[in-house]
Amino acid sequence: MIQIAICDDNEYELDILSRFINNGFSKHTDDYKIKCFTNGNLLLNYNEHIPFNVLFLDIDMPKINGFDIAKKLRNNFSRCFIIFVTSHSNLVYKSFEFQPFNFIQKNPQENLEESIMLVIESLMNNMKQNKKIILENSEETAAIYYHNIIYIESDKHYMKYHIQNKEKPISIRGSINETYIELQKYDFIRIHKRFIVNLKYIKFVDKKIGKIYINYNGFKKSLSLGTSYRDIVDEKYTLYLREMS
Questions:
Q1: Residue 76 DSSP symbol
Q2: Environment class of residue 129 by beta-carbon count within 10 Å: exposed (0-12), middle (13-18) or buried (19+)?
Q3: Per-residue pLDDT at 125 exceeds 70
């Protein structure tokens, strides 16, 4: 279940946000719960018992503002998605310090519902990778988030999972066809008879020379782009960028 919190000290605005956010999530799933707060400290206390996955935070609040709430959560290594909601557009750059997922302006109010709908649509696409896969071989068993898998390489009868911040890949017995059937719903794309790549890590597609460039553990790396895959990779990568924007 997706645990969602909304925090705004203005009860009227909180009610509007709650209705719009509920309408937005209901278009994608029924597996969610929304909890509303007019006080940031109450939100933080609740979060200690039932951690939130998504937070919509007003920035300008008394006692403890949205930035203070975000700072406490990030200091406790919370991986929740934070969306700041405010009337003050000049605060958007300061909000980046807290790694927000997005930023919504309250004004003009007639655009608020549309803005929330677009953010939730992007959020739901992103959250597909916020699940874990169990990778197990004779040496180790690891629960890995899909968003930490950079690419998978086929090597004879094994699939090598190259993972963010992990020096050596995890090798699992399997076929690339079966692996791709499982992974494509999590925004992975097959680019070659030997490679499956997480769309999140693709930085550039060069169809002319048949290369895909990715960010791999802090370094740039190129992978071969098969001739028969070039058009579909270009199409799906372009669509992915639009969905995430």
A1: T
A2: middle
A3: yes
